[in-house]
């Protein structure tokens, strides 16, 4: 806006130049040839960066775009006019530029054109949160479930960024809620990991499977508890998440809640009928971990919830009561992986 002050350039003209020069900056080639001279895209963008040069540069850009730029498309060149338009649709998705998107679609750019990594315009707009662009792409038939090389799709990237309006729009257009990426993460797992509660609730409303696991057997609930995220954990439990799930490291939601010394989370898990005596791979129970921490209030809470004080840790052959007597002076340490050394 400041650059337009005192200039005869209209905002539409400025936006046109900005879109053109931004596209040039993203062209995947080291240089462009115009009128027999090497043209540095960055230099061109710099010349357009001040109001006094904008108007003078417009004819040059227009001429290049409509006439002389075809020199680049010669057999020895690196870029074609359709390729420029394809760059334009990706750029429009990134910037949220509806006018540029309309132009690209009018030029019959494939709505599902993707980058070398498999990112479509819909994925880019979903990540950046440009709802109007997302809506227009969907209306024009963009693949709502199209995945990139790592298995990410528009719903996943929108969930990761917490773009709840985009998530809602994608779901309305039939996005498959339980698709998983190469690492096994679904949109719900991603949103739970990031703590985007509104997105979590929206996905659950569309029947996302609450106990899907990634390769380490972590569930959405385990990830929420690991992050000490009581709000997300509570939402997942109300949706029927299994409180006794266990990952490959022996971590359970209750063990993680005790490790964080989060009494509120422990109470929520107890109300969900968690197994208070479930041990990790090393035979460590929640009560043992609590005793190691020397937390008398948490110990009472677990005992009142029917925690068994007579359980023995298989690796060390000790009772919970022994650990409680020794407390922090016992030399035991605790960590979120459920080990005791």
Automatic annotation (TrEMBL):
The keyword Repeat appears for this protein: yes
Query: What InterPro entries does this protein's entry cite?
Result: Ankyrin_rpt (IPR002110), Ankyrin_rpt-contain_sf (IPR036770)
Supply the SUPFAM superfamilies for this chain.
Answer: Ankyrin repeat
Checking PROSITE patterns in the record gives: ANK_REP_REGION (PS50297), ANK_REPEAT (PS50088)
Q: List keywords of the entry alphabetically.
A: ANK repeat, Repeat
- Annotated ANK repeats reside at 117-149, 150-182, 183-215, 249-281, 282-314
Which Pfam family is one of those matched by this entry? Ank
* Protein name in the entry: Ankyrin repeat and KH domain-containing protein mask
């Amino acid at each position: 806006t400041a650059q337009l002050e005192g200039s005869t350039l209209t905002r539409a003209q400025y936006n046109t130049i900005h879109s053109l020069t931004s596209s040039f900056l993203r062209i995947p080639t080291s240089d462009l040839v115009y009128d027999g001279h090497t043209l540095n895209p960055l230099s061109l963008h710099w010349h357009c960066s001040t109001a006094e040069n904008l108007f003078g540069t417009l004819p040059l850009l227009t001429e290049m775009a409509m006439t002389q730029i075809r020199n680049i498309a010669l057999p020895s060149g690196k870029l074609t006019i359709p390729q420029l338009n394809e760059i334009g649709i990706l750029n429009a998705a990134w910037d949220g530029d509806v006018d540029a998107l309309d132009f690209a679609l009018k030029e019959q750019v494939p709505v599902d054109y993707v980058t070398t990594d498999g990112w479509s315009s819909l994925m880019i707009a979903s990540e950046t949160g440009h709802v109007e662009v997302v809506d227009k792409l969907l209306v024009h038939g963009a693949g709502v479930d199209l995945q990139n090389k790592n298995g990410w799709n528009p719903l996943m990237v929108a969930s990761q960024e917490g773009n709840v309006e985009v998530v809602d729009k994608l779901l309305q257009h039939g996005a498959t809620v339980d698709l998983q990426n190469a690492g096994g993460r679904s949109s719900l797992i991603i949103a739970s990991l990031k703590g985007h509660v509104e997105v979590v609730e929206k996905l659950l409303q569309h029947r996302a499977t609450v106990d899907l696991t990634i390769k380490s057997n972590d569930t959405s609930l385990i990830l929420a508890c690991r992050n000490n995220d009581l709000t997300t954990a509570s939402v997942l439990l109300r949706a029927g998440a299994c409180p006794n799930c266990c990952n490959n490291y022996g971590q359970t939601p209750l063990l993680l809640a005790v490790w964080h010394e989060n009494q509120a989370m422990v109470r929520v898990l107890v109300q969900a009928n968690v197994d208070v005596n479930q041990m990790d791979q090393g035979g460590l129970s929640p009560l043992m971990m609590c005793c190691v921490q020397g937390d008398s209030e948490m110990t009472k809470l677990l005992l009142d919830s029917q925690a068994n004080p007579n359980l023995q840790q298989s690796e060390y052959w000790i009772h919970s009561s022994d650990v409680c007597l020794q407390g922090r002076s016992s030399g035991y340490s605790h960590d979120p992986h459920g080990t005791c050394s």
